[in-house]
Amino acid sequence: MTLAEPKLGTATHCPYCALQCAMTVTGHTVEPREFPTNGGGLCQKGWTSGSLLGSPARLTTPLIRVDDELVPASWDDALDLIARRLTEIQAQHGPDAAAIFGGGGLTNEKAYLLGKFARIALGTSQVDYNGRFCMSSAAAAGNKAFGLDRGMPFPLTDLADADVILLVGSNPAETMPPFMQHLRRAADANGLVVVDPRRTPTAEQGSLHLAPAPGTDLALALGILHAVVADGLLDKSYVDERTRGFDAVWRIVAQWWPERVERVTGVSAADQRRVAGMLANARNAYILTARGSEQHASGSDTVSAWINLALALGLPGRAGSGYGCLTGQGNGQGGREHGQKADQLPGYRKIDDPAAREYVAGVWGVPAESLPGPGRSAYELLDALGTEEGPKALMVFGSNVVVSAPRAGHIADRLAALDFLVVADLVLSETAAMADVVLPVTQWAEEDGTMTNLEGRVLLRRRAVDPPAGVRTDLFVLNGLATRLGQPAHRFPDDAETVFAELRAASKGGLADYSGISYDRLRAGEALYWPVPEADHPGTPRVFLDRFAHADGRARFMPVDHRGPAEPTDAEFPLQATTGRVLQHYQSGAQTRRVKELNDVVPEAYVEVHPDTAARYGLAEGDWARVSSRRGSASVRVRCLASMRPDVVFLPFHFGGKQRANLLTNPALDPSSRMPEFKVCAVNLAKEQS
Ligand code: SF4
Fold first, then answer.
1. Residue 57: what pLDDT?
2. What is the pLDDT, as a whole number, of residue 118?
3. Which atom of ligand 1 is nearest to the CA of 176?
4. pLDDT band at 335 (very low <50, low <70, confident <90, very high)
5. Sign of torsion, CA 465 403 331 348?
6. Torsions phi, psi of 648, nearest 5?
7. Average pLDDT score over residue span 455-471
8. Which of 338, 490, 521, 534 is a good FRET partner for 458, with 20 to 30 A between their CA atoms?
């Protein structure tokens, strides 16, 4: 790796969420930069992100476990050990005994090279990533409905002209505050409707807040669609000309009249009809969904239900209106396009498609028959670790599964059962602390790379500062391991721009076609939304205006029905717990818990509970409570909130140890996306005995 001289004022983008706010980094100082998505703003996480660059918590040398202690080692010794152990384990148990777990925060280049490393250097099918926990249900639903999954198929700034926006299961006032400026016009026109079981800071800003019981918003979408049809608001010409499948949907929706839906969801029939009228009568309207809809065992169907509503109203693919999914992780969109998913190859190609295998194998210079087939999805992969049938070795990049995976106590046990665990990270996360080898890697402002933001716009993150001595890039790690495993070095370049050039070729002709994008075009400031199939193609800010991506150009209604949460409440576990984020922290908190300004504000986990519910369990504000599910218990501080539903409690999922919300969560999987049901599980409360 060549080290760059420190530069003053490098234009780059935030290390955290999918808004990818623009910033200028000077040394370890961050300033916001004007850009369409953030309008010159940053949230607290972005403003304080520079402190991570000089953080004393950074890892600066590889660590190897010796006699149950992690001790410093040289890079050569660490990489030699990894290559030797992976070779031994695969020789004994077969290629699938080694597994890779990636992340939705990795750059496009890392995601691409990680998938290639798994399939070629290791020859394993066992590769997946934490985006499976994050956006996979919307991806599955988008592919079914539109034939293409570009989360937001229009630029964010289009939202500024909307009269009505229905925001489902999203809390951007905390997760991505600069996004709220795009909702202002709708909010000012009394047209911002927020669907969330909690009265979040976003719901506070809405003109109407619908609070369905957790796990029932599929039913709510059916009820609003019923009202659309019953009140004569269906956009019949759009349905006839641009879609297929409405009749099958109506056969189900006809059974879900608003009064019946009210009994299931708790949302009044009057509010359902009001929302139907608001959406249908608006000049410009949007429906946006996020994790609240997706993270369910019926998450794909739930998103499909909201897309059905959007199609019935004629919103998708119409200028000034639409449906979109708000991705969460920094590269949530790009992370799912380049081959780190168990079932995919670069260009958003299916790994079991013979033509796709032939094409990608040609780019990689290997026989198509040498590429493994689809592997286990994220939770299934983690659940199988160390079992007789499952992988015996795991390498983790950009993920902290001990905190972020559902049924986290069980997942920690599975990691402990491995013969060999490697973690590449910036800091000693909870997962890294369990590893046999820890590799200290660069972070956002210390490396070049591209990210694809929530709009499908490809952005260049630039290297602004040198990393600490002893730290290397993930690309360096993959190159060093691949060559030790017998691959030619040129097949695994450690330079981001060179990797991107190959990614372009591998994506050509795929759904997510990046072949016309280059670092030079990005450096020149071009706004390039994929697909960009030629070097002189201007990009595609709005993808569905003329036609949808199915062969006949029409969108598909999907017949879906309400199922409810996978885990019912009962006398032993009478409350429903839901989980989410807070303003000051990001994902597993591995980074933000190490930023003093953020951690001082929210230093510990808590449970939000209605005061009457708290009193019923002998709990008061500030007490420590033990929240228990069928899978484990978390110890968290009590916060009493009168706005909570009495039957629901909320826990943020950013904290480690006994405060992990995911000790409770249910790994029931969506049959289509394989996403776990993070958003609802049955729990009880008790006072924590100190
Ligand atoms: Fe912007 Fe998200 Fe970074 Fe906050 S965390 S500054 S909203 S990109």
1. 94
2. 98
3. 7
4. confident
5. positive
6. -130, 140
7. 95
8. 490
User: Which atom of ligand 1 lies nearest, measured to the CA of 17?
Assistant: 2
Q: Is the pTM of this model over 0.90?
A: yes
CA of 655 to the centre of ligand 1 (A): 20
Q: Which two tokens stand for residue 100?
A: 């890779």
What single DSSP character describes residue 468?
P
User: How many angstroms separate the Cα of 408 from the Cα of each of 163, 396, 660, 667?
Assistant: 42, 16, 8, 10
**Ligand 1 centre and the CA of 415: distance in Å?**
31
Q: How far is the CA of 325 from the centre of ligand 1 (A)?
A: 17
Q: Which residues line ligand 1 (CB under 6 A)?
A: 14, 16-17, 19-21, 38, 42-43, 45-46, 176-178
Domains of the chain plus CATH, in order, are 10-53 (2.20.25.90), 63-133+331-506 (3.40.50.740), 136-326 (3.40.228.10), 575-687 (2.40.40.20)
CB of 490 closer than 8 Å to CB of 128: no
ipTM of the complex: 0.99
Which stretches of 48-113 are assigned E, i.e. beta strand? 63-66, 69-72, 98-102
Cα distance between residue 397 and residue 410, in whole Å: 20
The confidence score (pLDDT) of residue 8 equals: 65
CA–CA separation, 431 and 533 (whole Å): 39
Report residue 257: phi and psi, to 5°.
-75, 155
Distance separating alpha carbons of residues 438 and 421, to the nearest angstrom: 9
Residues forming beta bridges with residue 294, ordered by sequence position:
none
Q: Which amino acid is at 339?
A: G
Closest CA to 224 of 188, 185, 258, 173: 258
Mean pLDDT across 640-668? 96
- Could you give the residue ranges of the DSSP H alpha helices within 94-135? 108-116
474 contacts 493 by C-beta, under 8 angstroms: no
CA atoms of 243 and 556, how far apart (whole Å): 6
Rounded to whole angstroms, the Cα distance separating 69 from 63 reads 9
Mean pLDDT score, 211-226: 97
- Residue among 24, 30, 35, 42 to mutate when testing ligand 1 (max atoms within 8 A of CB): 42
* Closest alpha carbon to 210 in 257, 253, 169, 164: 169
Residue of 33, 171, 176 best suited for mutating to test ligand 1, as the one with most atoms within 8 Å of CB: 176
DSSP state of 461: E
Whole-number Å distance between alpha carbons of 433 and 427: 9
Q: How far is the CA of 34 from the centre of ligand 1 (A)?
A: 13
* Peptide bond preceding 531 in cis form (omega within 30 of 0): yes
Which pLDDT tens digit goes with each residue over 468-510? 999 999 999 999 999 999 999 999 999 999 999 999 999 999 9
Q: With cut-offs at 50, 70 and 90, classify the pLDDT of residue 4.
A: very low
The burial class, CB within 10 Å (0-12 / 13-18 / 19+), for 658 is: middle
